[in-house]
Amino acid sequence: MTHPYFTKARHPRILAHRGLAVGEGTGPMVWENTAGAFAAAHAAGAEYVETDCQVTADGDVVLFHDDDLQRVAGDPRRVDEVRTAELVEIFAPHGGLLTVAEMLEAFPETRFNIDVKTDAVAAPLGRIVAPHAERVLLTSFSDDRRRRAIASVLDAGATLRPATSAGRSSMMLMRLLTALRLSPARVLRDIDALQIPETYGPVRVLTPSLLRAAHRHDVEVHVWTVNDPDDMQRLVAFGVDGIVTDRADVALRTLN
């Protein structure tokens, strides 16, 4: 049965990768994973936003991809070493810091694809996501971490399991099984989407057999991270269900 996360939404899915952070000069004035980036994605018409979460020194679950602030802010400290109030100050000129709770409240119509970046996130995230499980997909490169985050949502009283996509080990097992023409049913149990790169190193992940097998089990296939319009059109023509992109505005013009 199709998860509510996918119902009454456009197909192909366009997932705004960390929002829409487009700017001029040496780098975007609005940073990724900020209120400004999400507002820009929403204004462009994106129904889905892909994001990431970390825990601060205060235990707040905030939207941030990296383990530390070096790439984004030139600060070598780990996110979990910095107080939330200080992060708010750092992010203020660049789109504004959001916690997961603030994100879900500020964008009540948006569907969120949340990557659980660390083990510390899983437990507190469950309490936050539980009231919004119908419009949240939880994922992680770690299948174990992903499962613990989902269990935390259900333990917090959610009546519906959030949608979920396979972790790295499940993704590669799925690729192997389909190459060998073996059933991936066990791997895809309780999986709603395969979110994969087209290739992973020298390995081609997206293949016709993988796509057919996923669709036979009512599992969507989303490819990341695709920014070229020709690639977007080619992949949708190939049969994928969604595109994760840094340029949701371009994807919406190209595909819809």
Automatic annotation (TrEMBL):
InterPro entries on file: GP_PDE_dom, PLC-like_Pdiesterase_TIM-brl
Pfam families: GDPD
Residue intervals of the GP-PDE domain: 12-255
Gene3D superfamilies the record matches: Phosphatidylinositol (PI) phosphodiesterase
SUPFAM superfamilies tied to this protein: PLC-like phosphodiesterases
Any one GO biological process: lipid metabolic process
Molecular functions (GO terms): phosphoric diester hydrolase activity
PANTHER family xref list: GLYCEROPHOSPHODIESTER PHOSPHODIESTERASE, GLYCEROPHOSPHORYL DIESTER PHOSPHODIESTERASE
Protein name, UniProt field: Glycerophosphodiester phosphodiesterase
